[in-house]
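Continuing the series of single-chain predictions for the mutant panel. This is the parent chain; the variants come on the following pages.
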Amino acid sequence: MDTKALRSRTVTWEDPLEVVRAGQGRSGLELLRDMFDQRLPAPPIALTMGFRGVHVEKGKAVFEGEPAEYLYNPIGVVHGGFAMALLDSAMGCAVHSTMAAGERYTTLEVKANFVRPITVDTGLVRCDGVVIHRGGTVATAEGKLYAAGSGKLLAHGTTTCLIIPATR
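Parent structure:
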């Protein structure tokens, strides 16, 4: 084996349940603002895949990520799971930002369309998630992932989430 071709990557993270504990009695938007402003730790998946939340407001969440070699699949492009993780995170956090204290949600369905390949040459990518509908039991959102430098659309998707009311 050619040792010059070897690569390595180390990922470290904090206790992911710290965010769960911090969420008690707080709205989804309050919790997400603390995460995006780095007052609470990022979820391990974001650190593992190399993306982060950069903006959140009620009904909208924005993530950015840097495509890297460690995300490549056997055909020489970034695996679709990277785009899917960004879409799911942006759309899910957009829904999460509408949660009142004690409310929760879970994803029922996610659909993604990949329209361009992503490689390290793509550069920084940005994903916007926006709530389309927020009802009492169901919320829907859409997301768009694009190359930050060129503005070209890379993928887009939708999600449906089940709203779980606060327990009394």
